[in-house]
UniProtKB/TrEMBL annotation:
Name recorded for this polypeptide: Putative iron-containing alcohol dehydrogenase
Origin: domain of life: Bacteria
CDD domains reported for this sequence: Fe-ADH-like
Record bears the keyword Oxidoreductase: yes
An example Gene Ontology molecular-function term: alcohol dehydrogenase (NAD+) activity
Domain Alcohol dehydrogenase iron-type/glycerol dehydrogenase GldA stretches: 19-186
Family, per entry: Belongs to the iron-containing alcohol dehydrogenase family.
Entry keywords, A to Z: NAD, Oxidoreductase
Residue span, Fe-containing alcohol dehydrogenase-like C-terminal domain: 197-396
Biological source species: Megalodesulfovibrio gigas (strain ATCC 19364 / DSM 1382 / NCIMB 9332 / VKM B-1759) (Desulfovibrio gigas)
Length: 400
């Protein structure tokens, strides 16, 4: 068996997958053209009520209608899309005779849209496809338009759905859920407030960090991840600060959407690690925002993982702006990296602990047990068992 940790990168097989992408102001206006190109004359439009209230859904429906595409809106999407919601949306898709899906929103509408595609093409409950490469048949044509800069769902081979019975988020990882087209229009992200901007931006940062230290990283994903980190360090504070101002900061929004895209392509191909495994457990158990969960866990996982990817974490710290001398001892370098991440979190207003969000000492065993079973643990740079994950949860909650 090969030892991939010591072999040159070019001896290791790596694949890279991504959808067709259009980036820039006005990208939304191309939704009808791409639906037509994909032979989808009647589409399910998956979004949420909040976006309908600020006219983005209305504009998308107008664009589709102008191209002769009939739209069937589905706005019943919760912040953490659930298995029952996916089943209901899939039934509606079939009843209406849809031929494709257009998702407009953050990660929740896009993940629900992917789940609808899985169910309608494979004719089985969505949770039965949990894990890696378990989806046999590709879904119908899927076009995604992100309205947040963080999830990367518009380019990823991940779909995250909450298992309501077991109170855990389930990861479905399959090339079949990669959207056909991603339309990235920075203007769509300008309606985010400061808190959502911070949470989704730190989600993108976590994607980049975990992709860079993943056991499945490659030169392509490394390049994307490092550039995303630099963009986020520079532009996330600007985007958060301007989010409460009188006018959107289009440059900051564009840079953050590009960073999210880069991080999304990186993690889709390099996969993730313990932060996401723990965030899936935490978010499903307490129904918490995914980006916030990642943000509160990231620095604590870095402390645990550092010895398993020291050179890469040093590079991460430098990409985020830390001055880390080449001859700095490991302990010093680790603290500099963690301090830089914590400073960015504080700058954008993320100062909570897990305890303030409802984590109790009694819940630690459950959270750690579910995290240990998440497929994202397979590519964490060093192994972590249930007790290791329990200790990380405890530290992030302030119990240790």
């Amino acid at each position: 068996m090969r030892n991939h940790s010591v072999e040159p990168w070019f001896t290791q097989l790596r694949k890279f997958v991504a959808p067709e992408m259009v980036f820039g102001l006005g990208a939304l206006e191309m939704a009808g053209r791409f639906a037509g190109n994909l032979r989808a004359s009647r589409v399910l439009v998956v979004s949420d009520a909040a976006l309908a209230g600020i006219s983005w859904v209305e504009r998308l429906l107008e664009v589709l209608a102008a191209a002769g595409v009939e739209a069937k809106p589905w706005l019943q999407v919760s912040a953490n899309p659930k298995d029952g919601e996916a089943a209901a949306a899939a039934e509606f898709y079939l009843q209406e005779g849809c031929e494709g899906i257009v998702a407009l929103g953050g990660g929740s509408p896009m993940d629900l849209a992917k789940a609808v595609g899985i169910i309608t093409s494979n004719q089985a409950p969505v949770l039965s496809f949990a894990g890696v490469d378990n989806v046999e048949k590709p879904g119908p044509p899927l076009i995604c338009l992100p309205t947040t800069a963080g999830t990367g769902a518009e380019v990823s081979q991940f779909a995250i759905i909450t298992d309501t019975a077991n109170r855990v988020k389930v990861a479905i990882v399959s090339k079949t859920v990669i959207p056909d087209v991603a339309l990235l229009d920075p203007e769509l992200t300008c309606t985010m407030g400061p808190e959502l901007t911070a949470h989704t931006g730190l989600d993108a940062l976590t994607h980049a960090v975990e992709a860079y230290v993943s056991n499945a990283h490659s030169p392509l994903t490394d390049m994307l991840a490092l550039e995303a980190m630099g963009r986020i360090a520079r532009w996330l504070p600007v985007a958060v600060q301007s989010a409460s101002g009188p006018a959107p900061h289009l440059e900051a929004r564009s840079e953050m959407l590009l960073a999210s895209l880069q991080a999304g392509m990186a993690f889709s191909n390099a996969i993730l690690g313990a932060v996401h495994a723990m965030a899936h457990s935490l978010g499903g158990y307490l129904d918490l925002p995914h980006g916030l969960c990642n943000a509160l866990l990231l620095d604590h996982v870095i402390l645990y993982n550092f010895s398993g990817a020291e050179a890469r974490y040093r590079a991460i710290g430098r990409a985020l702006g830390a001055h880390i001398p080449d001859d700095a001892p490991a302990d010093e370098a680790r603290e500099l990296v963690v301090a830089t991440v914590r400073q960015l979190k504080q700058t954008v207003g993320v100062t909570q602990s897990l305890a303030t969000l409802g984590v109790t000492p009694e819940s630690l065993d459950t959270l750690a047990g579910k995290a240990a079973q998440d497929p994202c643990m397979l590519t964490n740079p060093i192994p972590a068992d249930v007790q290791d994950l329990r200790r990380i949860f405890a530290k992030a909650a302030g119990f240790e």
